[in-house]
């Protein structure tokens, strides 16, 4: 079956041009008018990737990505934000919300398609490795655990040695980060300022050699750094 892409934009012309091009490229495409409608479609259809505008009625792109990332089953779902907003702070907000790529308008459809191919390839590799790691560790647990071991203990991904390099506060920030929380939201829960939270995030990016929050979350899940 072809991979499914959800295209979200309140402009009909943009939706049609993107969806037509992607369908001709061999993808299955579903569309939504705004973030609220898109969130329902994510739940129903489980697309392989989302392409969404930011400025939309009812629910904007930032909120859509944040809501999607709050659900564990969609933490690895690739998301591309499309927008005419090009200020640095707005791009930062996009990445903080959990997007994988920020593509400013106007853009070439060929460039968008290339970005989609790249993200889908990486996503499939990561998910494949993650499933293999789970199966491998499940097999190891079943063969080495005593009969009194709890079933829940057998399904956990083996912890990476890197976990010992993280401070308890960094571990707390990483755990909240995988739930799609913003700096302000994490700061509220941990009783820290948003600026201090950002410093912990920067430390995590450095220690894991990842370049953005989406990569950090995927890395953490793959290597068992979070529950």
Mind sketching the topology for me?
Layout: E1 4-8, H1 12-24, E2 28-32, H2 35-45, E3 49-53, H3 61-69, E4 79-83, H4 88-97, E5 101-104, H5 109-144, H6 151-154, H7 168-177, H8 183-190, H9 194-208, H10 213-222
Parallel strand pairs: 1-2, 1-3, 3-4, 4-5
Helix pairs in contact: 2-3, 7-9, 8-9, 9-10
Task: Describe the protein in words.
By secondary structure, the protein is an alpha/beta fold. The chain is built from ten helices and five strands, in the order βαβαβαβαβαααααα. Strands 2-1-3-4-5 form a five-stranded parallel β-sheet, with helices on both faces. Strand 3, helix 3 (61-69) and strand 4 (79-83) form a beta-alpha-beta unit. Helix 8 packs across helix 9. The longest helix is centred in the middle third of the chain and has 36 residues, at 109-144. The radius of gyration is 19 Å and the shape is globular.
Main attributes?
227 residues, five-stranded parallel β-sheet, 5 strands, alpha/beta
SSE order, one letter for each helix or strand: EHEHEHEHEHHHHHH
Strand content: 5-15%
Through-space gap between termini: 32 Å
Please identify the oligomeric state: single chain
Instruction: Tell me the total number of β-strands.
Output: 5
- The helical percent reads 55-70%
- Overall shape: it is globular
The overall pLDDT, averaged over residues, is 80
Radius of gyration: 19 Å
- Counting DSSP H or I runs of 4 or more residues, the number of helices is 10
Major β-sheet annotation: 5 strands, parallel
């Amino acid at each position: 079956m072809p991979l499914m892409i959800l295209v979200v934009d309140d402009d009909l012309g943009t939706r049609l041009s993107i969806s037509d091009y992607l369908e001709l490229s061999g993808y299955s495409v579903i569309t939504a008018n705004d973030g609220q409608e898109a969130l329902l479609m994510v739940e129903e259809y489980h697309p392989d990737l989302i392409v969404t505008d930011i400025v939309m009625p009812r629910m904007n792109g930032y909120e859509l990505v944040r809501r999607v990332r709050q659900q564990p089953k969609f933490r690895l779902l690739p998301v591309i934000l499309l927008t005419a907003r090009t200020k640095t702070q707005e791009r930062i907000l996009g990445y903080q919300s959990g997007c994988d790529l920020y593509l400013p308008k106007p853009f070439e459809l060929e460039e968008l398609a290339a970005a989609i191919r790249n993200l889908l390839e990486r996503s499939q590799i990561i998910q494949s490795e993650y499933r293999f790691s789970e199966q491998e560790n499940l097999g190891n647990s079943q063969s080495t655990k005593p009969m009194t071991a709890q079933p829940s203990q057998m399904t956990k991904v083996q912890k990476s040695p890197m976990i010992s390099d993280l401070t308890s506060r960094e571990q707390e920030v990483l755990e909240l980060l995988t739930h799609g929380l913003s700096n302000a939201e994490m700061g509220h829960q941990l009783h820290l300022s948003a600026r201090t939270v950002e410093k912990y995030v920067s430390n995590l990016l450095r220690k894991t050699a990842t370049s953005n929050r989406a990569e950090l979350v995927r890395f953490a899940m793959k290597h068992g750094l979070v529950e």
